[in-house]
Write a structure and sequence with these properties.
alpha+beta; Cytidine Deaminase, domain 2; 2 domains; 5-stranded mixed sheet
């Protein structure tokens, strides 16, 4: 095993970062800096190489799970937590919209810019509801469902119950299509129409239903699909 201390000073990851800049060093070196130490068998850089062997490309690292990391010899709770924290921090830095709380809803693109890094690479559908006040300011977001969506599982009762709890006067639904294709399915239309009808009865209208894809979104409102039938 090659230990970091056995590597010439000018070739060590931290020294190379300081000398050439973070953008100039390899993926293995960046991970090695986060890991700090290796184990009895591998150096930090070798351990970083092992981690990267579990993904097809570096972009897939953002979806690696705690369980997967902990199955890698030499990666225990501490190192796994550091890596997941660094990955999440990178996701948040990449968001052009840092938070929806307190944001005034005026176009679907605002919602897309927030959720695109959160949902665009998910392998399962995630259904969220946003709750707004009388000024169309978002006061709360809530994750309602994860999985292959059977819309009987996303019941209007659960959506509007939360609306009353936070005194919301309007809602927006958001979900992703893991395939990347944002065109609504038949179930998407059915769900939207059901929420429009229930919202009218309760006086808490559905303002929009937004589908998030890998590089684009679909807004029911912007496409004229919000008329109840």
């Amino acid at each position: 095993m090659t230990k970091i201390k056995d590597i010439p000073m000018h070739e060590r990851p931290i020294e190379r970062l300081l000398q050439y800049g973070a953008e100039s060093i390899s993926n293995e070196e960046l991970l090695a800096i986060l890991l700090r130490t290796g184990n009895r068998i591998q150096s930090a850089k070798e351990l970083a190489t092992t981690i990267l062997s579990h993904v097809k490309c570096i972009s897939e690292l953002k979806e690696i799970s705690y369980e997967t990391l902990c199955k890698i010899p030499g990666i225990a709770k501490g190192k796994a937590s550091i890596l997941l924290a660094a990955i999440e921090l990178g996701k948040r830095i990449d968001r052009s919209v840092e938070t929806l709380s307190g944001q005034k809803f005026n176009q679907a693109k605002l919602i897309y810019e927030y959720y695109r890094t959160i949902l665009s690479n998910k392998q399962q559908e995630h259904v969220y509801c946003l709750y707004l006040d009388s000024k169309k300011t978002i006061v709360k977001e809530k994750l309602l469902f994860i999985g292959t969506v059977n819309y009987s599982m996303v019941h209007p009762r659960d959506i509007f119950k939360e609306a009353y709890l936070v005194s919301a006067t309007a809602i927006i639904c958001v979900h992703n299509h893991p395939t990347g294709d944002v065109m609504p399915s038949k179930d998407d239309y059915v769900m939207t129409q059901n929420l429009i009808q229930v919202g009218k009865l309760l006086g808490i209208p559905l303002l929009d239903h937004i589908i998030i894809g890998k590089h684009q979104y679909y807004s029911f409102f912007e496409n004229g699909d919000m008329n109840s039938k």
